[in-house]
Each structure stands twice: as structure tokens, then as C-alpha cells.
Amino acid sequence: MRKYIVGNWKMNGVASDIGAIAGIADAAALYPLVDSAICVPATLVHRAASELPGFSIGGQDCHMQPSGAHTGCISAGMLADAGAKLVIVGHSERRAAQFEQDGDIRAKAEAAKASRLDVIVCVGETLEERDAGQAIEVVLRQLEGSLPDSSAADWLSVAYEPVWAIGTGRIPEENDVAEMHGAIREQLVARFGDAGQGMRILYGGSMNGDNAAMLLAIPNVDGGLIGGASLSVPKFEPILAAAAKSIEE
Ligand code: PGA
């Protein structure tokens, strides 16, 4: 399976940062066996996609409706119209701050598919849930509720992002990642059959150039969703290199 390395710029980036995105696109071109993309703030999608036509630019959220009275919201069709190729839905920062529920996320994923966007659905437990021994149960429940029924490997990926690992510099033990990704794979296969076998499961949460090789070598870790380390070429390129190397091994 090709590895998928996706940057999530979160609420970072203005027009003067297009050069940094272009630098990342140039670096990504050096690793043709790795699929990569950067999800930028909605305000930059059109500009980045127009200036970098050979590189995948994505959004970080979309509304579940195609249009209507939803002040401040952006539909999947609008992202696609601006040139986005993909969108992240259900990031834990949105689940927490915008109170998004599994059913909302599922509807957003369906809306994105209808607009022909690739979709990354995020799931992940809090530290309290992990400490209580509920991590797998919580993540599988989120997955069950957040994934649309019509799933297929070519447009839908899952990102497992433990909330406590995001932006903290902490990552789970290797065997905990293996156990979680294995459990996610099992559920995908039980629900979608062969398509579930081919769906990519990304790991997210403090992935960087130092730990990417280890994380990407874990069974069922098919890529990464990267926040902080996606903001510059020197931080992002080593992750692309680790992904390329993991395919050779
Ligand atoms: P991080 O963020 O790499 O900065 O931990 C990951 C994410 O939130 O997607």
C-alpha cells in the first residue's frame, strides 16, 4: 500500500506562506512513491491549489449541507470549487471545540464524497479514556458512528490521533499503536470487506522526523497526519523520506 503523508496546517498560514507550501510541494515531488497533501486554512485553498496544480491541497473541515443559511460555514462543494482534492473531517480539535458528534462527521464525510473529495476521518481517545483502559472501545465506537456506509479504499482514509499526543511531543508506545491500528483494520474489514483491507489508516499526534520511521514501520500504519511538523520543509521532508524508505524495506 502507498503511504499517505498529510500535513494539517490548522489555523496557520496567510498569503505570504504560499512559498512554504510550494517548498513542501517541491519536496514531495522528490518522493513519487509517497502520496502527500497539505490541508490549509480555507482562505488559502484557492490560492495554493491554483499556484501548485500538481500537488494535493485540502481543507480541514466542511459543512454537511451543500448550501444554505449557515453563516460562516463552507461546504464540500465550495472546497472542491476552490481546488481542494481532499478534506479532513472530525478532527479532535473540532470534536472538542465545535462539539461535533459522530453523526455530524459521518454526514460531512458523505457530503465530501458527493463533491468528489477524498476524505480523512479522524478518531482518537483522550488521556482519561486511555488511562481507564477504554481507548480501543472509544475509538471503535467513534469509527462506527463517523464512517459513511459507502466506504471505499480509493477515497476514504482513517486517522487515528490520540488526543493526548496532539501537539504535546508525546506518542503512544509502539505496541499500543500496533494494537489500535490492528483493531481499526479489523473493524474496517468486518464492515467493508476487501475495501476495508485497502483503506489507509494514518497515525497522527506529534509525528516528526525523529519518530516517523518507527511509526510508519508498525503494521497497519499507512501514513501520517502531521500538524506542527508540516509547517516547514526541514520538518516535513524527513517524514516524507521516512515514508519512502518504509516502502523499500
Ligand atoms: P501534531 O498535530 O502533529 O502537531 O501533534 C497532529 C494533528 O492534530 O493532526
Summarize this, please?
The protein has 249 residues and is of the alpha/beta class.
Structure explained in plain terms:
With 249 residues, the chain is of the alpha/beta class. It has helices at 18-29, 42-51, 76-82, 92-97, 102-114, 127-131, 135-146, 174-192, 194-198, 212-216, 233-248; strands at 4-8, 35-39, 56-59, 86-89, 118-123, 156-160, 200-204, 223-226. It has an 8-stranded parallel barrel with strand order 1-2-3-4-5-6-7-8, surrounded by 7 helices. The longest helix is centred in the last third of the chain and has 19 residues, at 174-192. It starts with a strand and ends with a helix. The relative contact order is 0.16. The mean pLDDT is 97. The structure holds 2-phosphoglycolic acid. Residues 8, 161, 166-167, 204-207, 225-229 line the site of 2-phosphoglycolic acid (PGA). The site of 2-phosphoglycolic acid (PGA) has 13 residues, from β8.
